[in-house]
Recover the amino acids of this structure.
């Protein structure tokens, strides 16, 4: 069997990976639930967040400021894309919005290449400290990532359940027309949702940047995993996204310990199995049809 | 007379394409013919069955690797290699199709995209022992010359690709006119009614899926023979939207859309990459602009105009039953 130390660090690695995946996928899931748009451009805000974090942390020397800047950049980019592009094509078929979002993604990667170049750039790890848990050295930074994503989940839950805007948003996920009929401006809700999603993707990119190198293709690298998470969890479900991102994070991390090349494939196998049993994912509702 | 009416559009289109061979450089002409076969599968899925597939490169890779494995390890006859690619395409698309076609449209798009990335990982890392990872398989020298049409020579390969493309397009035109084609359209528009008529949505979708992706695999197999090497790069995530872009550009669901789309897309890519290094930027935002402008595509806009002009010239409207493809 695998020894305990390896197992503990593997589980922690999976948790932090799952946290990053969750931050990315929650935006995708929220945007789908509300607007029925598969927003591939979230992956662009993820790379953008990473790059802005790099630039700010290099110039000011403060990583946390950089991550905040990355989050802001993602949010602004998300809002801009919503106002400039999506606002005009909400009525169209899901196919067309998806292709449009892919256009934004590819074009945005081109912009990133133009400004930052093709070479992968390193971001310094802000906290080098390691703490000892059950005889295993664990980097604190990964624990912070897990904590932050927990906070984000709590924040989103509070937002959706305790504020009037969040409640309107949940109602709109169920039925847009009725919400519109109540006199709520749904396009404002859409803009808010896109801003939140973009900001969270930017934050994910910023937080993950020290653990990998930022490069223009980094969004495309996580693409498959984020999609598998959203499919496993069920499109439009926040809880499902949480469960499936930690599931996929653990599978990738622990799978790497057992047999490395297969670890990338295992989530796909899980996805196929779940779709075989339940074609709408774990928590996806069968009523979500427009 | 009616036979001629059925064929004349196809003959005209391919006559123009053959004429293009005289004026265009050979690699460009080859690329267009291959790409229009590639995009045809996607066009059929998107326009006739209503499935958007972002994972077409996965099936392209299946066909390409099916051919590559044969030519690299076993034999040297390119025709047998292409046949291997087609068989691989049928087997894989039957296996995954049975799972995928049960899904809703949005899940279908995501699952296919995931499949493309998984095939990429599979070819790059998991099977690196056989596929040589990122280096790819090189077998250009081991392709044997064949007697009638020598596929190892690009000019003769063009004739072969041209004939195959003609056959494929005639096949799809035939499908559109058949009951099966009508059923495909019905499963896109109203699946409940189709069930009511006594057809099974599942089996119609499965057959359509297998047909479309076998076409894609055939394109992959021909790419493999034409280029003489295969690497995982053909299924990388950045290339997944290409067939969809071409389909949309040409006009979704139109018969000649893929040809027009490939011509414009490959021409654009060639021209842009000649002047600007950063082609992703222009393709990406160009795509957004095209989507904002409308969803009919180039051929989808031109075709009704041509039809109108033509029927005015003849002073006799064409029967709607045969050419009724302009109205979706």
């Amino acid at each position: 069997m695998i020894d305990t130390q390896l197992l503990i660090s593997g589980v922690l690695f999976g948790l932090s990976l799952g946290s990053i995946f969750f931050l990315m996928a929650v935006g995708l899931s929220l945007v789908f639930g509300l607007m029925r748009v598969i927003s591939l451009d979230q992956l662009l805000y993820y790379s953008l967040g990473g790059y802005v974090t790099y630039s700010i942390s290099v110039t000011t020397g403060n990583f946390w400021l950089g991550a905040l800047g990355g989050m802001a950049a993602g949010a602004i980019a998300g809002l801009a894309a919503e106002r400039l592009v999506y606002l005009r094509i909400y009525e169209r078929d899901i196919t067309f919005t998806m292709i449009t979002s892919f256009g934004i993604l590819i074009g945005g990667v081109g912009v990133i290449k133009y400004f930052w170049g093709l070479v992968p750039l390193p971001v310094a790890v802000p906290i080098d400290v390691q703490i000892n848990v059950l005889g295993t050295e664990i980097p604190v930074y990964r624990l912070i990532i897990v904590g932050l994503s927990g906070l984000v989940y709590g924040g989103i839950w509070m937002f959706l359940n305790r504020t009037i805007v969040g409640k309107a948003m949940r109602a709109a996920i169920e039925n847009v027309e009725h919400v519109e009929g109540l006199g709520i401006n749904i396009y404002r809700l859409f803009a808010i949702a896109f801003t939140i999603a973009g900001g969270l993707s930017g934050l994910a990119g910023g937080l993950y940047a020290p653990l990998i190198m930022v490069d223009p293709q980094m969004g495309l690298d996580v693409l498959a995993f984020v999609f598998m998470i959203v499919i496993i969890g069920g499109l439009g479900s926040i809880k499902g996204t949480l469960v499936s991102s930690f599931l996929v994070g653990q599978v990738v991390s622990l799978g790497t310990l057992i047999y490395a090349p297969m670890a990338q494939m295992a989530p796909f196998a899980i996805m196929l199995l779940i779709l075989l049993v339940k074609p709408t994912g774990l928590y996806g509702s069968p009523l979500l049809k427009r | 007379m009616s036979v001629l009416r059925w064929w004349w559009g196809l003959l005209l289109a391919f006559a123009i394409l053959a004429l293009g061979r005289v004026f265009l450089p050979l690699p460009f002409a080859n690329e267009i013919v291959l790409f229009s076969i590639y995009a045809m599968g996607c066009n059929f899925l998107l326009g006739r069955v209503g499935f958007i597939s972002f994972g077409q490169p996965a099936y392209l890779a299946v066909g390409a690797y099916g051919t590559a494995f044969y030519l690299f390890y076993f034999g040297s006859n390119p025709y047998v290699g292409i046949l291997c690619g087609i068989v691989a395409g049928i087997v894989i698309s039957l296996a995954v199709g049975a799972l995928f076609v049960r899904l809703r449209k949005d899940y279908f798009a995501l699952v296919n995209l995931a499949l493309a990335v998984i095939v990429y990982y599979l070819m790059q890392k998991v099977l690196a022992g056989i596929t040589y990872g990122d280096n790819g398989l090189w077998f250009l020298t081991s392709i044997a010359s064949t007697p009638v049409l020598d596929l190892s020579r690009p000019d003769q390969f063009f004739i072969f690709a041209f004939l195959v493309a003609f056959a494929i397009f005639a096949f799809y035109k035939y499908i559109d006119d058949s009951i099966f084609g009508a059923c495909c359209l019905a499963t896109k528009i109203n699946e409940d009614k189709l069930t009511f008529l006594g057809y099974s949505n599942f089996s119609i979708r499965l057959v359509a899926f297998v047909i479309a992706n076998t076409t894609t695999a055939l394109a992959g197999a021909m790419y493999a023979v034409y280029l003489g090497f295969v690497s995982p790069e053909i299924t990388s995530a950045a290339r997944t939207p290409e067939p969809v872009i071409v389909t949309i550009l040409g006009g979704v669901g139109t018969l000649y859309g893929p040809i027009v789309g490939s011509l414009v897309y490959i021409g654009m890519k060639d021209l842009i990459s000649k002047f600007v290094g950063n082609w992703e930027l222009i393709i990406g935002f160009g795509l957004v602009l095209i989507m904002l402008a409308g969803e009919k595509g180039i051929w989808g806009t031109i075709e009704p105009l041509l039809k109108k002009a033509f029927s005015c010239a003849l002073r006799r409207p064409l029967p709607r039953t045969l050419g009724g493809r302009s109205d979706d």
Q: What stands out?
A: The domain at 26-323 of chain B is CATH 1.10.3470 (ABC transporter involved in vitamin B12 uptake, BtuC). Chain B has one domain: 26-323. The first helix of chain B runs from residue 2 to 23.
